[in-house]
């Protein structure tokens, strides 16, 4: 097993920063975040990857929060590049959620470093390329990014049972093997006893998808 650290620095997902989550873009904020990345990289002995999160920093996804903080335009890119620099300075490779691409494709492909691993995510069961998150897999491939596509078995009602298998099939057909670094399966619920059944189902679904992928590679 290979542990990979993940600290989500998106302003809507950074409550773990405590009081510093209310100091975004300040001198103290950059100092604390830089030290945290350095410390985590040291604890994990310079891991291959370091996930920075950076998803859902927009008004729609923060509409129910008590405090809304949104970086936009050059400020978002300034802070994103700061995090990437700190990660690379400590001998790791940055990895992010890719949904910024959905809303800002021109800026994304102009400014996103190819060194950053992309996890576009989609939890539906239709893989119509007219859907923005589905199209994003092909766009990222077209621009030459390394990808770890992410599917999900949704925690609330078991929605998305076919998603991870269809994600694997779609991405195998549309992403070159050299750029496909792996897959993620999400469940978005705590690993507590009341979630045992759903978590085990998600693991089973991921296992089935892996078996299909391995078999398809041997028979191509």
How is the secondary structure organized here?
Blueprint lengths: L26 H17 L5 E5 L19 H17 L3 E5 L2 H4 L1 H7 L5 E3 L12 H11 L7 E3 L10 H12 L9 E3 L9 H24 L1
Parallel strand pairs: 1-2, 2-3, 4-5
Helix pairs in contact: 1-2, 6-7
Summarize the structure.
The chain is mainly alpha-helical. It has helices at 27-43, 73-89, 100-103, 105-111, 132-142, 163-174, 196-219; strands at 49-53, 93-97, 117-119, 150-152, 184-186. The strands form 2 sheets. A 3-stranded parallel beta sheet has the order 1-2-3.
Would you mind describing this structure in some detail?
With 220 residues, this protein is mainly alpha-helical. The protein has 2 domains: 1-97, no CATH class; 117-220, no CATH class. 42% of the residues lie in helices and 9% in strands. It has 7 helices and 5 strands, in the order H-E-H-E-H-H-E-H-E-H-E-H. The strands form 2 sheets. It has a 3-stranded parallel sheet with strand order 1-2-3. A two-stranded parallel sheet has the order 4-5. Helix 2 links the parallel strand 1 and strand 2. Helix 1 runs parallel beside helix 2 and helix 6 (163-174) runs parallel beside helix 7. The two termini are 28 Å apart. The mean pLDDT is 95.
